[in-house]
Amino acid sequence: MQILIHALCTKGESLREAIANDAKLASHQLEMVREKQPGRAPGWMKVRSAGETPGVLNIEWHPQSSVLSARVITRGSGKPSEIVGDFVNYLLRRHGRRVRTIITAKSQ
């Protein structure tokens, strides 16, 4: 199952880069696995859930629209609610001043 998360943000530096460089990411049950083209757009990063649900988030930053896009992927019968909750909680706690709206959608 895939869940899409879009965070509409204020203008500014890449939120993806801010997440990649955040030393407190692990305290929110998330860990960075891989980053491609750090410092460049478009680039992406992969974040894994450190919680019980196996799953990853593929994250991209769109600088023209200031939108952070994340695609949550879980395997088997894994329910994505835990990793979605951890990520949204992280966004609001660590980057809440920049986040204006968060939209989630289920994808088949």
Architecture blueprint of SSEs:
Elements: E1 2-9, H1 15-20, E2 30-36, E3 44-49, E4 55-62, E5 67-74, H2 81-95, E6 99-107
Antiparallel strand pairs: 1-5, 1-6, 2-3, 3-4, 4-5
How would you characterize the overall build of this protein?
The chain is an alpha+beta fold and about 110 residues long. It has one domain: TATA-Binding Protein. It is about 20% helix and about 45% strand. It has two helices and six strands, in the order E-H-E-E-E-E-H-E. The chain has a six-stranded antiparallel sheet. Strand 2 and strand 3 form a beta hairpin. The radius of gyration is 13 Å and the shape is globular. The N and C termini lie close together (about 5 Å). About 25% of the residues are buried.
Properties at a glance:
108 residues, alpha+beta, TATA-Binding Protein, six-stranded antiparallel beta sheet, 6 strands, 43% strand
Question: Summed up, what is this model?
Answer:
The protein has 108 residues and is α+β, with helices and mostly antiparallel strands. The protein has helices spanning 15-20, 81-95; strands at 2-9, 30-36, 44-49, 55-62, 67-74, 99-107. The protein has one domain: TATA-Binding Protein, CATH 3.30.310.
Low-pLDDT stretches: none
What share of the residues lie within helices? 10-25%
- How many domains, as an integer? 1
Taking all Cα atoms into account, the compactness measure Rg is: 13 Å
* Helix and strand sequence: EHEEEEHE
Contiguous helical run count = 2
Measured between the Cα atoms of the first and last residue, the distance is 6 Å
Per the CATH scheme, the topology name is: TATA-Binding Protein
- Proportion of strand residues: 35-45%
Category from helices, strands and their pairing: alpha+beta
Could you tell me the mean pLDDT? 87
